[in-house]
Design brief:
By secondary structure, this protein is mainly α. Helix content is 73%, strand content 0%. GO terms for molecular function: actin filament binding; cadherin binding.
Length: 763
């Protein structure tokens, strides 16, 4: 089957026709990836026509038009690539080779698809797409590889721009450090400000374009440092110029310059994907990530008893328990939390011992009883780890909530400002000690939150917050000491205000970070739409009021674990399908995302996690899920009115299946269930029916995507590519803006030409 044109998979994955990217080319940005998406999917569709038995005149003409269109589009694309090469001599040789390869591949495809005028296109007397099946695949692979090279080389120019901009900023910073007069400082700082604005724009665009969420978070942290430090650099430098003999003012200024240089260096590490001296980045392991990996290994024993050793599992648990010492050794962890964490650590060791014992027996003798015992041991081990995760989360977030509430009045900062203006050195010393204590508390809070943050980007945000408190605390102290020594200095007062504002801003950011960490813990997934459709006491129908909420025990969870896992896999499949749609606001996509989000919550319920705490929560979620499915059928009927008559029956048939399944699920969720056995049967039935709906949804989404694209393209007719305008080159060579030339010939320009390649749709 042809790859859907709606596909958003990167070029690095091979297609059904054997197309694949050059293994040596790693695509790190969304713009390059998304530019290649239409080329990958549409070329694949073309290739798949070589094996189709029916070749009508209409099909042959369409294939020939595709070949010609590909060749023309590649020609325009190559023209842009060659213009880039001429503007950037260090890339000229590589870019020229890639452009030549792309042009040659485009011409080959045009020759092989020149079939419309032939009486027998499959005749060996004329080499065509039908007689030389491997030739067209080779040409397509060469085209894809060479276009990718051109795009990646163009991306290097963007990186070069960022490095050049960074170098300008560094050079101007060196001048700012050495100035000795206000007049000179004002002049150079004006230039510095303009350079920082340019750097901010370039790095902001790059941050949004990065595919790796971890790198994106690191970039955001570095840019935040640079943004705040720009104002600090202004006031710290002015204070130092006003009071040149003041040691605390010099220390204050040096700290700002040092921090800015580190942030600039980190930006370059991210965009070039390199570290000084070839060091590899060793990110500290959090308790959450450790538990997640440990549970995955334990649950993997269900499928394979021999894929890891007991020593491996024991080592993983030891590492996790070592990290829990950050909590038990902390002076800020409550006695109650400390005791619970120690108890659960002890229990985790016991559960693992029991699991290993049953596991070793099962390796020797796979009886039904032993496999059931193994399943219970797996479930108990995972449940214990979940409880440990819950406990450390509670310890970290309750400490954070208390500290943020306690420090919300900023009393120490206010006192430092007052005593500094008074010139009271003794009082300033007293409050700087209190600020140092506050800093230690907040740094410890960040370290503990990092363990429970749940995602790598949030971990990085916690590390950034820790660094900010570590650095800003001493800077506030040096600024306060400067003001106390020069109490009548307006600039010293302004300088202290700026550093205090940075501290207050970071505290405010911590409240938002805490909320995000809690959201992740409660099962609300990252960037996906979150559906909070939980029942509230007294807010739903009368049947619910009479029922007592029930939680599943370990054995019941073990029985539905397989169903839950299937549901989890289906949510991933649905998410993958919805991400392939160009129009993310489409009603079908939105309903699909909503159903996937709710199904994921139901999967978490089977693991004893997430927002659904009781069986009643699950039943209500199943009702809402079924309602969302019913809304989706309405959107499907609306789509059927737009598609051609040939496609309508299949779509309507699938829509009827969906509405029937949703009605069955709704009836099951609303049915009364008295007693433990009946309740569990109802849970099992709800999850089974939800799984069936999700299976159908996995088939519906690609079908709808294909029909929409087919309808949009006019049932396979080609849209003419817009004419190439030579004045694009002239625009880029405007003498007044030489440093902006690359933008005209960069990724954006290349995107425009690749996305204009609209090819044949498979029928």
């Amino acid at each position: 089957m042809a790859t859907s044109p709606c596909s958003s998979s990167g070029v690095s994955s091979s297609s059904s026709s054997g197309l694949g990217a050059d293994a040596g080319l790693e695509i790190r940005t969304r713009s390059v990836e998304q530019t290649l998406v239409p080329l990958v999917s549409q070329i694949t569709t073309l290739i798949n026509h070589k094996d189709k038995p029916k070749r009508s005149d209409k099909t042959l003409q369409a294939i020939q038009r595709v070949g010609q269109a590909v060749n023309l589009a590649v020609g325009r694309f190559v023209t842009v690539g060659e213009a880039i090469a001429n503007e950037n001599h260090e890339l000229k040789e590589e870019m020229s080779v890639a452009c030549i390869e792309a042009r040659r591949a485009g011409e080959t495809i045009a020759q092989l698809t020149d079939v419309a005028s032939l009486d027998h296109p499959e005749s060996d007397s004329h080499i065509t797409i039908f007689t030389d099946k491997t030739g067209v695949v080779k040409a397509a692979r060469l085209l894809l590889s060479s276009v990718t090279k051109v795009l990646v080389l163009a991306d290097r120019i963007v990186i070069k721009q960022i490095i050049t901009s960074r170098n300008k900023v560094l050079a101007t910073m060196e001048q700012l450090e050495k100035v000795s007069s206000f007049q000179e400082f004002v002049q150079i700082f004006s230039q510095f400000g303009n350079e920082m604005v340019e750097f901010a724009h370039l790095t902001g665009d790059r941050q949004n374009d990065l595919k790796d969420e971890k790198k994106k978070a690191r970039m955001a942290a570095s840019r935040a440092v640079l943004e705040k430090c720009t104002m600090m650099l202004l006031t710290a430098s002015k204070t130092c110029l006003r009071h040149p003999d003041c040691e605390s003012a010099r220390i204050n200024k040096d700290g700002v310059f040092h921090r800015m240089r580190l942030a600039l260096e980190q930006v370059i590490e991210i965009v070039t994907d390199s570290r000084p001296n070839g060091e590899s980045e060793m990110a500290p392991i959090s308790i959450y990530s450790g538990i997640k990996e440990f549970k995955n290994k334990v649950e993997g024993l269900r499928e394979n008893l021999y894929f890891l050793s007991k020593e491996n599992l024991s080592t993983m648990l030891e590492v996790i328990l070592e990290h829990t010492e950050d909590f038990t050794d902390s002076a800020y962890t409550s006695h109650e939390h400390r005791e619970h964490i120690l108890e659960l650590s002890k229990q985790a060791k016991m559960e693992l011992e029991q699991l290993v014992s049953v596991w070793m027996q099962a390796q020797n003798q796979k009886t039904k009883d032993l496999m059931e015992d193994l399943e219970v041991a797996i479930l108990k081990t995972c449940q214990c780890m979940n409880e440990l995760k819950r406990e450390v989360h509670s310890a970290a977030t309750s400490l954070a909530a208390d500290l943020l509430k306690y420090h919300t009045d900023h009393m120490v900062l206010k006192a430092l400002k007052i005593t500094g203006v008074e010139g009271n050195l003794e009082a300033v010393a007293e409050y700087t000690c209190k600020l140092s204590e506050q800093k230690e508390q907040l740094v410890e809070m960040c370290r503990l939150l990092r363990h429970v943050s749940g995602t790598e980007p949030l971990e990085i945000t916690c590390i950034h917050a820790e660094d900010t408190f570590q650095v800003t605390g001493p800077q506030i102290i040096s600024a306060a000491e400067t003001l106390a020594l020069h109490p009548s200095s307006k600039i010293a007062k302004e300088n202290l205000e700026v550093f205090c504002e940075a501290w207050e801003s970071q505290l405010s950011d911590m409240s938002l970070l805490l909320r995000e960490i809690n959201d992740v813990f409660e099962g609300k997934r990252g960037e996906k739409r979150v559906y909070l459709s939980l029942p509230r006491p007294g807010k739903h129908n009368a049947n619910l009021k009479a029922l007592k909420p029930v939680k599943l025990d370990s054995e019941e969870q073990a029985k539905i674990a397989k169903l839950g896992l299937e549901l989890h896999l289906l949510t991933s499949d649905v998410d993958s399908e919805t991400e392939k749609w160009e129009d993310q606001e489409n009603e079908i996509v939105q309903h699909g995302q909503g159903m996937s989000s709710m199904a994921y919550s139901m999967y978490l319920f089977t693991r004893g996690e997430g927002l659904l705490k009781t069986t009643q929560d699950l039943f209500h979620q199943a009702e809402i899920f079924a309602t969302e499915g019913t809304k989706l059928t309405s959107a499907l009927h609306a789509l059927s009115d737009q598609v051609h008559d040939d496609d309508k029956p299949l779509l309507l048939l699938e829509a009827e299946k969906l509405i029937s399944m949703c009605k069955q699920l709704q009836a099951t969720a609303k049915a009364s269930a008295q007693g433990k056995s009946a309740t569990f049967t109802k849970v099992d039935a709800c999850i089974l029916k939800t799984r069936n709906v999700m299976t159908l949804l996995c088939q519906l989404l690609p079908l709808c995507c294909k029909l929409l694209r087919k309808n949009k393209a006019g049932n396979g007719c080609l849209k003419p590519a817009p004419p190439w305008k030579e004045d694009r080159i002239r625009t880029g060579t405007n003498a007044r803006t030489p440093e902006r030339r690359v933008e005209t010939f960069g990724i954006k320009s290349l995107e425009n030409h690749v996305t204009n390649m609209t090819f044949l749709e498979s029928k």
